[in-house]
Write a structure and sequence with these properties.
heterodimer, B: mainly beta, three-stranded antiparallel beta sheet, 9 strands
């Protein structure tokens, strides 16, 4: 059974940093692109970043690229998202999603709240 | 405001057929495939359609997708109460080098 489980969400102050993790199982992790997608409270889905199977290519939502870094560990079957300079508008549920196609499987998400 | 435009809401009675539209541009839908996702309140999204008209395993044939030019549509026939959810389209945008989601359409089954 395919499983992706996010963790690392927390309450963080504006300007702070956070590292989200996603543990994957039930499929050959190193064979697939992986994505992060977020959803602010009561809002729609917003793609954040993606990383190629071997980690050699990374894609970012253009206005976030200076503040975030996506990475993966194909030995630990894990995906990561590092976020810096967090702002209130970054508050959202962050989903880890298997691709391609994007979102073949989704985790339940991890909640990030940016507030003082 | 999303670059991919969807109607905020739509509705239909049980058994009816409804369609949800997704309008984009030449840099996204015009050049790339469209995916559709279903999200029931409180749950994670689920892939409903990919590559415009391909259904993942387990998705009922009541769901169908199409694309023409810079627009795409999701059709749901034989509407059931369990279809009540938010629906999102998505496509890669060559100009932005980003995946784009539509703003979402809330389907109400009357």
């Amino acid at each position: 059974e395919v499983q992706v489980v996010e963790s690392g969400g927390d309450l963080v102050q504006p300007g702070g940093s956070l590292r989200l993790s996603c543990a994957a199982s039930g499929f050959v992790f190193s064979n697939v692109w992986m994505h992060w997608v977020r959803q602010a409270p009561g809002k729609g889905l917003e793609w954040v970043a993606a990383i190629k199977k071997d980690g050699t290519e990374k894609q970012y939502l253009h206005y976030l690229k200076d503040r975030i870094t996506i990475s993966r560990d194909n030995v630990r079957n894990s995906l990561y998202l590092e976020m810096n300079g967090l702002r209130a508008e970054d508050s959202a549920i962050y989903y880890c999603a298997r691709g391609s196609p994007l979102g073949q499987d989704w985790g339940q998400g991890t909640l990030v709240t940016v507030s003082s | 405001q999303s670059v991919l435009t969807q109607p905020p809401s739509t509705s239909g009675a049980p058994g009816q057929r409804v369609t949800i539209s997704c309008s984009g541009s030449g840099s996204n839908i015009g050049r790339n495939h469209v995916n559709w996702y279903q999200q029931v309140p409180g749950a994670a999204p689920k892939l409903l359609m990919y590559n415009n008209d391909q259904r993942p395993s387990g998705v009922p044939a009541r769901y169908s997708g199409s694309k023409s030019g810079t627009s795409a549509s999701l059709a749901i026939s034989g509407l059931q109460s369990e279809d009540e959810a938010d629906y999102y389209c998505a496509a890669w945008d060559d100009s932005l080098s980003s995946w784009l989601f539509g703003g979402g359409s809330k389907l109400t089954v009357l």
